[in-house]
Amino acid sequence: MISILLATYNWPQALKLCLESLATQTDRHFEIIIADDGSTDSTKQVIEQFKASSSIAINHLWQEDLGFRKTIILNQAIAAAHGDYLVFLDGDCIVQPDFVARHRQLAQKGYLVTGSRVLLNEKLTQVLLTWSHWDFKRFSTSLLGERFSGGINKYWPLKMKFSNGPWRDYKKFVWRRIKGCNMACWKADAEAINGFDETMTGWGHEDADFVFRLQRHQIIRKSGSWATEVLHLFHKIHDQSNAAENARRVREKILAKAM
Hints:
The chain is an alpha/beta fold. The chain has a single domain, classed as Spore Coat Polysaccharide Biosynthesis Protein SpsA, Chain A. Helix content is about 40%, strand content about 20%. It has 11 helices and 10 strands. Strands 3-2-1-4-8-6-9 form a 7-stranded mixed sheet, with helices on both faces. The protein has a 3-stranded mixed sheet with strand order 5-10-7. Strand 1, helix 1 and strand 2 form a beta-alpha-beta unit. Helix 1 runs parallel beside helix 2 and helix 10 packs parallel to helix 11. The longest helix is centred in the C-terminal third of the chain and has 16 residues.
């Protein structure tokens, strides 16, 4: 079974769309573990309403809001997952109906997958947040127009999907295109490297650190582009005051391996 580890923090309107998009999956053999980094009760209400209307197994993990501590709550989610394969997703992302199915197709022992995203601009994001419920067919009717107007930054990856193959494999660690909002690995591999580095707090690069340590553990990185794209809702830039320090620490680990 697949466990979707869904990270969220105080954006219930976006989380509602994300959960509704998961409810439309063609592949239904998955559970949802919500990794909540200290949201208020409005997020809990969205989750409870979703539970009442959906047959999907869902577990809401919450920790006190003491600043950006995503690594800690994600490690709790890894421990709580019943699935042997983990798909990491953020609550500000909407998924296509074949999202779980595509990740399952790419799942392979000895590999991790880093997916990609389609960025939505502020105008389109605000429109979607007014919808009473998520409707992918409705969204898809205006894709080309949204691409020309800047509503989305990619068009063809939403229309064309490619299967698995060695062309997806990375030969070495590269920082590019690592997105914690869309990646996947085997639970046993995540546990073997002790999950995320909980000493990395504040926004930034905890995902790159996680991927680097998996690759150092002889796990091959595979691209999930042109298969698993998520729709990333527009939001203001997070507090990035810790990003430089987190990046320095990842580079330090990379340099230590090279020596």
